[in-house]
Amino acid sequence: MERTVKEEEPGRELTLLVDGRVELLGRIPHSSNATFLVQLSCGDDSAWAVYKPEAGERPLIDFEPGLYRRERAAYLLSEHLEWAIVPPTVIREDSPLGVGSLQWFIEGDVREHYFTLYAGSPETHAVLAQIALFDCITNNTDRKSGHVLRGDDGHVWGIDHGLCFSADFKLRTVIWDFAGEPIPPALLEDMMPLADAVPSDVADLLDDAEVTAVQRRVQRLLREGVLPVDHSGRRHPWPLV
């Protein structure tokens, strides 16, 4: 498992996400919460984004309303780690259905997801293992196979992080193929600052218990030095894809 990064700066993406006019195009089907495809326009430039408004969230027992904040927190944490796992994501209050997250739309082959990449594209294994590690840090409750995408440029992304950062251990993921493998020294070095403090822009989107839990999960990963193993065999989301 090697350290993987994406080199180019997301300047255009963030400009459109932050400043672009947001036009609702339609609802994305098969999502648990209301999720929309929108077009962003800024001058002569335009692109698509995925919009998740707070108004479209289903009430949950174990997560407070405002899952869009966790989407943003996952992006910011990915950026602090310099892992480029989560597509550029911002919070906009002036969107058509009210406050929510806007995430850059990843164009790629919709037939590809974690299971197909793991089975058919061994060159992606390093970044897939890196996503598994990111999910351990963020306590991802919902890493389905379809939440792993490969863009047209070949970069592999993780999406859908609204159910992350719980203070209680809730890890559920399809990525167990790397369980027990050593975490590369470069990734351990990237994680080390989180053991002492979570970046303020991430912490501001979580509560105190969740911030402390991030630190404790990182401390454990640093101490054990390997990706965890699911001894119960039950830590999978449903549906799997």
Word description of this protein:
By secondary structure, this protein is an alpha+beta fold. The protein is 32% helix and 16% strand. The protein is built from 7 helices and 7 strands. The strands form 2 sheets. The chain has a 5-stranded antiparallel beta sheet. Strands 6-7 form a two-stranded antiparallel ribbon. Helix 5 packs antiparallel against helix 7. It is globular, with a radius of gyration of 17 Å. The two termini are 24 Å apart. The mean pLDDT is 95.
Tell me the layout of helices and strands:
Elements (H helix, E strand, L loop, with lengths): L10 H9 L1 E7 L8 E7 L2 E9 L13 H15 L7 E4 L7 E5 L9 H7 L4 H14 L9 E3 L5 E3 L26 H12 L3 H4 L4 H17 L17
Antiparallel strand pairs: 1-2, 2-3, 3-5, 4-5, 6-7
Helix pairs in contact: 5-7
CATH uppermost class: Mainly Alpha
Shape: globular
Q: What does the radius of gyration come to? A: 17 Å
Q: Topology as H/E string?
A: HEEEHEEHHEEHHH
- What's the number of helices? 7
- N→C terminal distance: 24 Å
Structural class: alpha+beta
CATH fold group: Transferase(Phosphotransferase), domain 1
**Amount of beta strand:** 15-25%
Number of strands: 7
How many individual domains?
1
Which residue ranges are poorly predicted, with pLDDT under 50 across at least 5 consecutive positions?
Answer: none
The major β-sheet equals: 5 strands, antiparallel
Look at the structure and give the mean pLDDT: 95
- Major sheet strand order: 1-2-3-5-4
CATH-scheme architecture: Orthogonal Bundle
